[in-house]
Amino acid sequence: IAVFSCITGLLVTRWIYSGHFPLSDLYESLIFLSWSFSIIHLIPYFKKNKTNLRPITVPSAIFSQGFTTSGLLTEIHQSTILVPALQSEWLIMHVSMMILGYASLLCGSLLSVALLVITFRKQSQLIQQLDYWSYRVISLGFIFLTIGILSGAVWANEAWGSYWNWDPKETWAFITWIIFAIYLHTRINKNGENSAIVPSIGFLIIWICYFGVNLVGIGLHSYGSF
Predict the structure, then answer these.
(1) Is the pTM of this model over 0.90?
(2) Which of 4, 117, 147, 218 shows a CA-CA span of 20 to 30 A to 53?
(3) Within a domain: residue 84?
């Protein structure tokens, strides 16, 4: 709760200072990613369920926020005026859904990795819990990702005159969507231990989509690069 409160305060402060919702660049999206991890961490508390999410969500939020506030992103800490393409009501809808999707899918993928590790130790009760939560968190993230991609397509049509341009970010987002669609399909038809391999691969795909493409800094989404 303390981490959530601190990150929320940082987001609100950034919002007031910049005059727009803080989702316009990599630095701001990383803050929102940390906030998303903390939200996922709090959900089980409201449901009063004992879960294995804490070892995943807490380090994820702390690590992402620590990286955000480190000196590596010093050049983009300063808030700037939004570029014309980002001056749209779709900014909050599209980017927030994508980041919430990334956060949920990353947490679910890490739970799947833990599931694969625990499988070798034959702890059946823990295996069932990890499978239960990884499936549900990934399902939630898949919904967010789908909404994010669809809203992004509508926004792209307004801004660039085309729903889809096979931009690097769009392409990797689509690959991410396909990977987790495969997981959900296999999870329904097979047991969790076998299907957990797919989101384990998806974990790397998400980071390529979210962070790797920004390192290259090309394409229509280059405003989110370093």
Answers:
(1) no
(2) 147
(3) no
Q: Residue 169 is part of which domain span?
A: 2-73+89-224
Does some domain include residue 81? no
Structure tokens at 173: 């987002």
Q: Which two tokens stand for residue 136?
A: 């549900």
**3-state secondary structure at position 69:** coil
- For residue 192, being part of any structural domain is answered with yes
Q: What confidence tens digit (pLDDT) does each residue in 36-85 have?
A: 888 887 776 666 555 556 666 666 666 665 655 555 555 555 556 666 66
Q: Which one, of 182, 185, 175, lies nearest residue 198 by Cα?
A: 182
Per the structure, how many domains does the chain have? Answer: 1
**167 contacts 220 by C-beta, under 8 angstroms:** yes
Region of residue 21 (phi > 0: left; psi between -120 and 50: alpha; otherwise: beta): beta
Q: Is 83 contained in some domain?
A: no
Instruction: Please report which residue ranges of the chain form alpha helices under DSSP H.
Output: 2-18, 26-47, 54-68, 90-119, 124-160, 168-189, 192-195, 197-207, 213-216
